[in-house]
């Protein structure tokens, strides 16, 4: 069954708004029109859903009376079969008033996709004269045909038999026709001594009876087998049509989706998931396409982060030159400076020793903010000893932020960048401020200087390098890109560093992190 039809019927029954209601009605009418054009000799297609009847475009609305259709015997019988096909013999259209045409009807319940909840009933009326076309009877043939249902009621007769009455023949012969699958008899039928053949359709259970005068029975002996084959092909053709519709709507999309998933499983992300489908498969295609894109981005991001982490470690090794040895050596130099009475040199060497000691003792990638600030204060103190009063350092920290998580060694490269590229180049004293705030589950750390700043073009170039993962000044220190990438690797793509600068006004770098408490 068409998934779009089932979806439209389900939405229709949920009583949507008028504009949506028209869209679902168009989908149902399109299905009816398609079925009428696809299956030959269809008189009409009707779909009953709730208290609504959807019908063929060739119906005259004034001729239709479908009130209380749920009480009709054909409707009750179809509902009782719960989705199985029900065939009704010759009759006038059930809800077409003043009609004299004869039709055969096929009905079934339309269930919800993947379940047994009924959404409606579909009724297909087939013109009675289409049986003549299937049997391919000429006007002057001597062979006559009768088609009956399982009870012997006449569905179709090629002569003038009264189809409103049961089949009239010898009681014993009639019993064999009803109870056996096929056979042949010499009997009196329709007031003539006739040779009678019959066969039962395995699909519908109908009986196809051929009878002819004994004088004519030898003329076209091969016709019966041809008719049986044609009728069987016609019955099978209708079943195949339903199978083709189901395959195109359900089976083929599942096979296609399976192949694409297998390609992704083998590491091939070049999959074709473009689809204009609006049913459940369209949702699946869209979800899988998004998942593949996110997986591919994650792999690329992780690969870059691993490479940059190795580069950062190499840079750290190059710059540290055995920090344990340097820390111990600086302590020795400090003691000699104290013994020599040079307090200023002793303080500077002692601060450098503490800086190296902190760096060697911290092995974790995630630390609380207050530990990262200890590192920064020592680093700034060394720079103040170097530049004197040229650098003023201020902290403005919001309560409860110093216990939140930050990436280790993420502030020092930014402080170093502010001093070298901002404050060192300007004339006069410079201000370096570190502040922290909380905003909607976010920890915002701001590093602000009043140095030389950069031009608008230089700022755009720097932002583009960070966005495109291009390294910035990696030869002299761990770059801004490394800090940004490590933050995104640990916390996600929505976090990182953001830069604002104006020439002659200074630079502001904001670190955006999730407000997560640090736990040992």
Write a structural description.
This protein is of the alpha+beta class and 520 residues long. The chain folds into five domains: 3-127, PAS domain (Beta-Lactamase), CATH 3.30.450.20; 131-231, PAS domain (Beta-Lactamase, 2-Layer Sandwich), CATH 3.30.450; 273-315; 321-361; 366-520, Histidine kinase-like ATPase, C-terminal domain (Heat Shock Protein 90). It has 13 helices and 17 strands. The chain has helices at residues 3-13, 18-38, 73-80, 129-135, 171-179, 223-265, 280-320, 323-339, 343-361, 369-387, 412-423, 456-467, 480-491; strands spanning 42-49, 52-54, 86-91, 103-111, 118-127, 144-148, 154-157, 182-189, 192-200, 207-213, 366-368, 391-397, 405-407, 430-438, 442-449, 496-502, 506-514. The strands form four sheets. The protein has a five-stranded antiparallel β-sheet with strand order 2-1-5-4-3, sandwiched between helices. A five-stranded antiparallel β-sheet has the order 7-6-10-9-8, covered by helices on one side. A five-stranded mixed β-sheet has the order 12-14-15-17-16. The model is unreliable at 317-321 and 472-478 (pLDDT under 50). It is a multi-pass membrane protein. Its main location: membrane. Residues 248-300 form the HAMP domain. It holds the Pfam family His_kinase. One of its GO terms (cellular component) is plasma membrane.
């Amino acid at each position: 069954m068409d998934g779009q039809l089932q979806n439209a019927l389900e939405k229709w029954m949920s009583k949507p708004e008028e504009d949506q209601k028209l869209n679902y009605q168009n989908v149902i009418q399109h299905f009816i029109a398609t079925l009428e054009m696809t299956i030959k000799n269809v008189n009409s297609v009707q779909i009953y859903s709730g208290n609504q009847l959807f019908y063929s475009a060739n119906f005259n609305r004034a001729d239709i009376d479908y009130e209380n259709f749920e009480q009709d015997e054909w409707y009750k019988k179809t509902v009782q079969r719960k989705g199985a096909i029900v065939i009704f013999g010759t009759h006038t259209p059930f809800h077409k008033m003043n009609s004299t045409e004869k039709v055969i009807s096929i009905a079934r319940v339309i269930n919800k996709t993947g379940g047994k909840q009924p959404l409606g009933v579909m009724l297909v009326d087939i013109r009675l004269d289409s049986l003549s076309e299937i049997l391919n009877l000429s006007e002057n043939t001597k062979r006559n045909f009768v088609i009956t249902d399982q009870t012997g009621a006449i569905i179709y007769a090629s002569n003038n038999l009264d189809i409103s009455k049961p089949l009239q023949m010898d009681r014993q012969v009639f019993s064999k026709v009803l109870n056996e699958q096929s056979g042949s008899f010499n009997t009196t039928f329709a007031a003539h001594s006739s040779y009678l053949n019959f066969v039962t359709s395995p699909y519908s259970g109908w009986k196809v009876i051929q009878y002819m005068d004994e004088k004519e029975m030898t003329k076209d002996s091969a016709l019966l087998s041809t008719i049986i084959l044609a009728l069987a092909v016609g019955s099978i053709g209708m079943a195949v049509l339903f199978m083709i519709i189901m395959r195109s709507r359900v089976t083929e999309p599942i096979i296609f989706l399976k192949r694409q998933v297998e390609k992704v499983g083998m590491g091939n992300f070049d999959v074709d998931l473009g689809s204009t489908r609006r049913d459940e498969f369209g949702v699946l295609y869209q979800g899988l396409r998004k998942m593949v894109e996110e997986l591919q981005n994650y792999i690329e991001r992780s690969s870059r982060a691993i490479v940059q982490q190795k580069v950062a470690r190499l840079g750290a090794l190059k710059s540290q030159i055995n920090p344990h040895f340097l820390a111990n050596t600086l302590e020795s130099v400090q003691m000699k400076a104290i013994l020599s009475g040079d307090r200023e040199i002793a303080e500077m060497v002692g601060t450098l020793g503490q800086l190296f000691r902190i760096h060697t003792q911290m092995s974790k990638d995630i630390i609380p903010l207050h530990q990262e600030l200890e590192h920064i204060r020592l680093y700034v103190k060394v720079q103040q000893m170097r530049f004197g009063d040229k650098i003023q350092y201020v902290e403005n920290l919001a309560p409860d932020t110093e216990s939140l998580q930050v990436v280790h060694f993420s502030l020092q490269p930014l402080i170093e960048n502010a001093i070298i590229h901002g404050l060192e180049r300007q004339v006069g004293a410079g201000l370096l401020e570190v502040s922290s705030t909380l905003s909607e589950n976010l920890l915002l750390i701001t590093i602000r200087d009043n140095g030389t700043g950069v031009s608008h073009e230089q700022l755009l170039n720097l932002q583009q390098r960070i966005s495109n993962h291009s390294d910035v000044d990696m030869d002299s220190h761990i770059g801004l890109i490394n800090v940004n990438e490590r933050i995104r690797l640990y916390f996600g793509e929505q976090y990182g560093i953001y830069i604002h600068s104006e020439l002659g006004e200074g630079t502001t770098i904001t670190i955006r992190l999730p407000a997560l408490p640090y736990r040992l």
